[in-house]
Design brief:
Layout: E1 4-5, E2 13-14, E3 20-21, E4 23-25, E5 30-31, E6 41-43, E7 47-49, E8 53-54, E9 62-66, E10 69-77, E11 80-88, E12 91-94, H1 96-100
Parallel strand pairs: 8-12
Antiparallel strand pairs: 1-10, 2-9, 3-6, 4-5, 6-7, 9-12, 10-11
Length: 105
Amino acid sequence: MRQIPVDTNGAVVMVAKPPQVKVRDRRTGEIATDAETGAKLEILSITVPEPGITGELAMGTPVALTGLIARPWENDFNGQKRHGIAFRAVAVTSLADAAARPKAA
């Protein structure tokens, strides 16, 4: 499936809700993991491997998104076609600590 790089350099990105663990199978409760690293995945309306989440991510926290990509997806479920765009990043870093530090003269 096609992956589209997303440039957020000119945008201010803030956390809208706290991270939640991504569930792979709701029937069994199986947690989704990263195919390359095996790390648990977390949802922030984008999917991020758990080790890629740094700093406190409370609502309203400004963040930097590293390696953000968009992936179009489509599936059939009970005879209904569904489609959308999934977002995934390598890391989400809180910028709150950087903003609180005094600037060098």
